[in-house]
Design a protein that fits this description.
- By secondary structure, this protein is of the alpha/beta class.
- It has one domain: CNF1/YfiH-like putative cysteine hydrolases, CATH 3.60.140.10.
- 21% of the residues lie in helices and 25% in strands.
- The chain is globular and about 45 Å long.
Length: 224
Amino acid sequence: MTPPLPIQEVLETFPALALPGMAHGLVRRVPGVSVSLDKMEVLALLKPWHEAAVAALGFDQEHVFTAEQIHGGETAGVTADSPRWTPGVDGLMTNVPGLMLGIHTADCTPVYLVDPFRKAIALLHSGRKSTEAGITSRAVRLMAETYGTAPTDLIIQVGPCIRPPLFEVDIASMIVRDAISAGVPASQVHDCGTCTGAEVSRYYSYRVEKGKTGRLLALLGLRP
């Protein structure tokens, strides 16, 4: 099935991640797709746009890896031989060219981590529980242990998420704080500042839409 509107109309990018060898994007709300269904049915309806975004970024669908997203603090490394879906984690990381990481959100925060020097990346699903579990700082340490990433080299992008006053906790500010505490320079930690709940015409919000919503798709990959 071909999406009836150009994928560029719902594919958002972030200036801080416009880096050589890196591909990224966030598929926003898709107009006309019903959200009065359960999560898996909505994801099935959104699949054509999500696949079109992967293709537009120059990757094969067979090389996209996703996570179970259990609202925990764990991140797993991905190689070409890894399963396409990793249970028990909320973050994925890789240093393999040609692989793309995918995370679904709808108020929780997509967090992009890029090491442009060692060509390593991570993509996190950071809701309240994952944030309180320190998923960002733990991912920074894990990238250092696994890929030799220096925290001072990392570029971090905090994506759209629900924010005060629509949510009682400022998840985004906690993520920024954790990144800086882990050694990432404040000038290299970027927050888009967007509240999903305040802009439901462009994003999905689980809280504002009382569970009857879709899922954004965050994508991050290393170009072949």
